[in-house]
Amino acid sequence: MQPGQRITTHFTFDELIKGSDAPTDVAVTTRIVEFTVSFLEPGRFAWESYLRETGMGGSPKWNIICGYRSPEKNARVGGALASRHMLGDAADIACDVDWRALRDGRGSERDARRMQAFATWLTKYAYKGNAVGGLGIYTEKNTGQLYWIHADARPRDRGRIATWTGHHVGSEQ
After folding, report:
1. Fold for the domain defined by 13-166
2. CB neighbour list of residue 128: distance below 8 Å, 6 or more residues apart
3. Sign of dihedral through CA atoms 143, 148, 152, 155?
4. Whole-model pTM?
């Protein structure tokens, strides 16, 4: 897979590696493609259908804040030592909101409601399939505004998805 190359209709390789050098390990590149094909792309289509069916409106775009992270970038942003991002099967996702404003505690009410609806929907969607084994909900610690969701393809423990909440203070793109 080369920089600039499209993985699916809605996601490019660059989008999934932004801020990191392209992985040299074929297994990592394969996991990036597999996670995009098995979860990100079908999820993006399902979110678009949900928006249409509920009349919620707005853009169905998913913002990939971070996908693959090289070990160097992972250390720089304060990622977990065994982060799934370094394996290529994780992404931090927001819908069509100003996630930076939400992260900084200055997000609009519209964006806060939209991200909350997205998180509720995405959690239900993840449980319907088998592509996701980890879901983290990240909120600003003072306002509680949700600004992104981490999803990864770790193995499920007895069918359960690992879940957590957190606040991130790294230097995201």
Report:
1. Muramoyl-pentapeptide Carboxypeptidase; domain 2 (3.30.1380)
2. none
3. positive
4. 0.92
